[in-house]
Amino acid sequence: MQDPKTYFIRTYGCQMNELDTEIMAGQLQKRGLTPIEDEESADLLIFNTCSIRDLAERKVMGKLGRMGRGQKKNGIIGVTGCMAMAKKNSLFRKFPHLDFVVGTNNITDLGTVLDEVLYTKKQVYKTEDRFEENLDYLVAKRDNKIKAYVSIIRGCDKFCTYCVVPYTRGQEVSRPPESIIEECKKLVDAGYKEITLLGQNVNSYGKDKKEWNCLFHDLLYKLDKIPGMERIRFMTSHPIDITVELMQAIRDLPSLCNLVHFPIQAGSSRILKKMHRIYTKEQYLEKVDLLRSIVPNVSLGTDIIVGFPTETEAEFQETYDVMKQIRYSLAFIYAYSPRKGTPAMRWKDDIPEEVKQDRLQRLMELQEEISAEERNTLLDHTLEVLVERFNKDGRMLKGRTRCWKKVIFEGDESMIGTLQQVKIHSFSHQTLVGELAKPLQGLRVI
Ligand code: 5AD
Ligand code: SF4
Question: What is the pTM of this model?
Fold first, then answer.
């Protein structure tokens, strides 16, 4: 086994995992390793994994099994991320060719774990339950030069009964505001136009560190002040922690995008209680009303789980009706998948797969109807677009509005990485199609 010269990281799961991959890649580059495109021939291959649903885990397990039988005998293979936390060193039993397992709270230790593997030629694992705030975020190697993820809080203390995250990412630990501000300033100075603040529950920011006197909305006010800061987004939120102060920040801070992820998960109060979401349908709806009264042009996003244990057709219908009533701009809909170690495992996974898929399909159709109507209302409006790249056809430019709508229009390469005003004239599938608008003519930024 030789000191690796090349690496490949395969990433599964959410944005937090994508960011962790960027941080690990930065650490490896600092050590002198070079990224390569071909995972089979990389000296070091890392699977940064997700455990949120069974399918996510099965994908990695299949891939790891295949790599074991393949030509990767001499390279080093490691598993990081949520599956590393969920399965820890039991992964070595199943995959004897695996060299290391590093948990979500130990990515700082990647280098020392690698050294240990090289020195001892033994399987090494490091999967601590608690995150210590000693991660070098500034090392992150970002391929995207326009948009960046910035971690503000790690872990989750909410313990929804279906969710593995509190077990795979541990307790909530906020990152000091000075460190976040420093990173954001550097990104803005480097030309980044959009920053997405990440956390499993960003609204809990600062609650674990009362002495900082800096809650989530306070942090937003500080970040908005950074000269040149164009767009701030945040993901993801728990409705219970969306405060009036946060709503006012969304209304008042020019850089804050007005798409708020407000995941309801289910429309029936009985199911919500069983999910331990700590709000009822009525409380959720009240909060949405309040948000809409404070920020009238707000768009909402949601996550929904169908087929939670014991969900009846009538209860599913409540979810359907709530979606129809709220009219989300964006909805991620999932079929319930039992996760080992979660409280919901106590209950029988009693909703047949066909029923789950049927409910999923019905919600997706409803969402598509709502989205199509929303697209229609955007015709003839001029929207601010952050231009990211050429579209697949290589002719039109592609970007996103502040509400995360995909827009294509004709323009030249020099516009990539800039904000442009685009007048929408039609759409193709889910993408809005427009043309460059003359700035400040009948402008209505949505
Ligand atoms: N089964 C299905 N979906 C799940 N999610 C979290 N845990 C599960 C599970 N066990 C969904 C939730 C969450 C999103 C990230 O994934 O909707 O908000
Ligand atoms: Fe998957 Fe959740 Fe871990 Fe993200 S935090 S990688 S979604 S299990």
Answer: 0.94
